[in-house]
Amino acid sequence: MTSCFTATPGVDVITTNADIPGLGSLAINAFVLHGAEPILVDTGTVAGSSDFLTSLESVINPADLRWIWLTHTDFDHIGSMAALLDAHPHLRVITSFLGVGIMGLSSTPLAMDRVYLVNPGQSVTLADRTLTAVRPPVYDNPITSGFLDHQTGILFSSDCFGALLPEVPQDAGDLDIDTLQSGQVRWATVDSAWVHNVDRDVFGAALDELRAIEPTMVCSSHLPPAPGAMLKLFVDSLAQVPGADRFIGPDQAALEMMLAGMVGSPA
Ligand SMILES: [Fe+2]
Ligand SMILES: [Fe+2]
Predict the structure, then answer these.
(1) What mean pLDDT is reported for the chain?
(2) Which residues have CB less than 5 Å away from ligand 1 (the ion)?
(3) What is the pLDDT of residue 103?
């Protein structure tokens, strides 16, 4: 079930939750940035596309959108992209060379005249706002690029800072800190398992770069919007990930036990 709310004036959230058995609930967010050239940040899940489009229409006339910022090409981010591009010929997708390449292997490739390529560190000015692409320190897809919106000061972090939670509130600031941090560490072990193998000094330097950003708000794809002051707390969560327990999913024996109703219901 998709719902919408306003994160801050000019920025709406279109959100749904995925309940993952044994792990918790995960927010799946897309964002609408209103302005002279409205931007949609990601396009929801493939499975929930119809519901997503209905929710999108409740916060903006999709014909008014000018840009989709595609943080990466996973199924929880590209759900309504093809439908929106088909319906609105002026709409273009901000992505990377690799993003175009991966979508070229799908049934809905991106036309070259519908994309705008941006690499981490580069900025793009869209009428009244400038966005600087940011490669977050953890990610599950090499295409990943979040961005800092200089107009609102919001950091859009893609999958980074997501959290598996008992239940998902509308504001990450309402979460108990232990619940939030343990949920962020768990999510990062699931979504970015390679972090267990990193050189911790190199990883620490990447985290320090992130600490230097002072956003007004952090908008992750998988966490409710959070006050910018929480960024340092989030970075502290990521610093725990290399030494955290590795995630190992249920195996066939566990699946058969679940199917037989021998284990409890999902968290
Ligand atoms: Fe992802
Ligand atoms: Fe995601």
Answers:
(1) 96
(2) 74, 140, 159
(3) 98
Q: Determine the Cα–Cα distance for residues 5 and 23; give it in Å rounded to an integer.
A: 25
* Average pLDDT for 134-158: 97
Within a 13 Å sphere around the CA of 108, how many CA atoms are in the beta-carbon half?
14
pLDDT of residue 258: 86
Length of the chain: 267
CA of 221 to the centre of ligand 2 (A): 6
> Is 90 exceeded by the pLDDT of residue 237?
yes
Q: Which residues lie near ion ligand 2 (Cβ < 5 Å)?
A: 76, 159, 221
Ligand 1 center–CA 144 separation, angstroms: 8
Q: What domains sit in the chain, N to C, each tagged with a CATH number? A: 3-259 (3.60.15.10)
Separation between Cα atoms, residue 266 and residue 108, nearest integer Å: 34
Spacing, Cα 139 to ligand 1 middle (Å): 7
Q: If DSSP codes are grouped into helix, strand and coil, which group holds residue 16?
A: strand
| Model pTM above 0.85 | yes
Ligand 2 center–CA 65 separation, angstroms: 22
**Given strand 217-219, what is the order of strands in its sheet?**
123-126, 129-134, 146-149, 154-156, 217-219, 226-227
Interval between CA 124 and ligand 2 midpoint (Å): 23
Distance (angstroms) between ligand 1 centre and the Cα of 12 equals 21
Extended beta strands in 123-176, E state: 123-126, 129-134, 146-149, 154-156
228 has pLDDT over 90: yes
| 186 CB-near residues (< 8 Å, 6+ apart) | 23, 24, 163, 164, 244, 247
Please state, in angstroms and rounded to a whole number, the distance separating the CA atoms of residues 167 and 159: 18
